[in-house]
Amino acid sequence: MKPLVHIIDSRLEYTLRTPPKLEDVFEADSHLFSRIPRHFLPSIKSPCWWERFSGDLNSDPYRKNHFRLSSKSFKTVYEHLKSSFQQHLLPRDGSLFRLRCLPFFYIIGQPKCGTTDLFHRLLLHPDIKFNTMKEPHWWTRKRFGYIRFKDGFRENFSVEDYLDLFDLEAHKIQESLSGNSGDHHALQLITGEASASTMWDNQAWSYLHSADEEAEPPFLTQDFIHAIQPDARIIIMLRDPVERLYSDYLYFKVANKSAEDFHLKVLESIHLFQSCLTMRSLRSCVYNTSLSNAMPVRLHLGMYIVFILDWLTVFHQDQILVLRLEDYAANLKTTIKTVFDFLSVGPLSEQAEAALTKRPMLNRRRAADRNLGPMLPTTRNLLREFHQPFNRKLASALHNKAFFWTSSP
């Protein structure tokens, strides 16, 4: 392990990526940028705009929405949206317009780091509204036609499908704009989106450009989000990568789980990563889809610093809030206040704050998985040594020694 750690240490001192030119990002998805304007309504906190409606008033505007077609849970929501759609069309200069909105902020990762719990607690704030579903995975997968990569290409979820997810809040904001609701507070509503794949998953490019010999994706998800919303707020929740990996293994593996099986899979994954480093740069190994598919556990998802540095090539550090799950669990009230301050929303009432802090943690380890016990001490020591250079670099970049995760559970 020591020679491998030495290699990782030396490879971490790489030159940061140069983001693609804006015109190249536009050209890579011209339809996306044709549907979203360069500027949003100044009187609204969320990024919203008026879009000309050119559809048939007598047809269901959501009938082709792929999110609706693929999820039974949206039936009630979309029935409501459909029934009230026409009353939210604004006539102007002989045309009809609908209010469209994008997320004000994104919770982008990582998996098994508490994003689901954070999502549900933030919903208790009256100024924060999320899209219709927690994890649309639109930016990383569905806009390219993939739901699960192992299932192959299905059909592209259009940007119109994605925007429909924010129509409930757009309607509330519009009612405030028109003065019909008498609630001007709605102008301060902010929308959020929480897909735990957004930070790291750029695998679609390898499927779309399978003939290319590109060592790294030509574009990253953040290039598109930043091109559309340069002022977006980004929230990242991280966890000790050693514990994250074991939790990931227990959650996503279906059968024959054990601490011994996990150890063997960790060894194989480390060997595969080490083999990749003999041929490629560290960064290209982190993004390599073939390697990701070959590793029996998702070791690369804990190499947080590589992903964060790439997000910092397009977003300013002040726009990215990085939290630790350990701090969130130990001092929920303080951490949530940090999030509220970052999003510039006011404090909760005493009653709402009590409800937020008393809510039990979500996505705790299943009882059957708890019975498997912790990982083997040998596995933990191995993973801790492997992640040490990544954590050291992360702690330095964030100016916070806590991200070194030196203490064992």
TrEMBL record:
It is an enzyme of class 2 (transferase). Belongs to the sulfotransferase 1 family. Coiled coil: none annotated. Its EC number is 2.8.2.-. One of its GO terms (molecular function) is N-acetylgalactosamine 4-sulfate 6-O-sulfotransferase activity. One of its GO terms (biological process) is hexose biosynthetic process. This is Sulfotransferase. Keywords: Transferase. It comes from the Eukaryota. InterPro entries: CS_Sulfotransferase, P-loop_NTPase, Sulfotransferase_dom. Residues 107-354 form the Sulfotransferase domain.
